[in-house]
Amino acid sequence: MTAATAAASDAEVIVEERGRLGLLTLNRPKAINALTHNMVELITAALDRWADDDAIATVAVVGAGDRGLCAGGDVVGLYRDVTEADGMSAAAFWRDEYAMNARIARYPKPFVAIQDGLVLGGGIGVSAHGSHRVVTERSKLGFPEVTIGYIPDVGATWLLSRAPGELGTRLALSAAMIGPADALLVGFADSFVPGERIPALLKGLESEDAATVIALLAGEPEPGVLAAQRVWTDEAFAGSSIPEILAQLREHGGAEASALAETIDQKSPLALAVTLEALRRARDLFDLEAALNQEYRVSRHSSGTPDFAEGIRAQLIDKDRNPRWNPASHRAVTESQVAAFFEVPADGDLGPSTAFASKETA
């Protein structure tokens, strides 16, 4: 089935078996395949079925259409739930999505993610925990959450806190998108395959070993930008607070650092402070599941803050791009406000049934 054929189907995820390949096609091309709760359930069901199916040797995920694998979670749906209902539908979505992220990371068979086009937020969650992550020249990866008053999740704090130096901190706080070379550098991807070779890659996966097929088709991407900016990135983003990081960027004196400071300064002060704290804490966590459990706590508390609804309103509902953050300044954010995001939410932590545990609950 081609991407065009898949797009014509009503199913939000096309589930196919092609030879020894189990193929998942995220199929909401008009929304750049943004994840819904139904999509998470369809993916999980297929993964569960294929895990014990000897006829399936490899699983792959692709996106329908030509814009990207996945632009993230369906945040407009989450907005409606937290503003018009009790927020428990959002909680259920996060529980199942994070369980899916962990399932992908622990999957017993090769999981090949084709990270072509836009791959943002939840799109990284459905791909970057896989065993074989492939970028193309069209790839643009990133975590835009702080732009909408939210905090990177889907295992983002685990991935970002383990990127070289402070590159992960930079990406989380700036919400910047990166190309294929930088995605390889920070650890979101493993291999570069030119886009024109992706059909051949998928065809090869029907009968051949995933690593062998990818190696035969792989190439080298154009150079990225992050490697050349490592020194001042590591120095500035090692700061212990958002005001300190912004001051270090501005004192650096370079045009790139100053522009980055201005970009960060426009984001939600509260979301930035919580994101920085989440990344620092994630460095000391012992596995992905512990990071996802921490992210669940943060997500639940975040959805109840004014900034979450306001950020989505400004970016995606009214689209005035003029959010009114609360608190409005970085120095107005208190330590107690930030700490509250890491407390166990009213509906509890991610439980043993999904194999999640934190140090506090293990």
UniProtKB/TrEMBL annotation:
Signal peptide: none annotated. It catalyses: 3-hydroxy-2-methylpropanoyl-CoA + H2O = 3-hydroxy-2-methylpropanoate + CoA + H(+). Keywords: Hydrolase. Pfam families: ECH_2. SUPFAM superfamilies: ClpP/crotonase (SSF52096). Residues 22-342 form the Enoyl-CoA hydratase/isomerase domain. GO terms for cellular component: cytosol. GO terms for biological process: L-valine catabolic process. Its EC number is 3.1.2.4. The keyword Ion transport does not apply. GO terms for molecular function: 3-hydroxyisobutyryl-CoA hydrolase activity. Transmembrane segments: none annotated. It is an enzyme of class 3 (hydrolase). NCBIfam families: PRK05617.1 (NF004127). This is 3-hydroxyisobutyryl-CoA hydrolase.
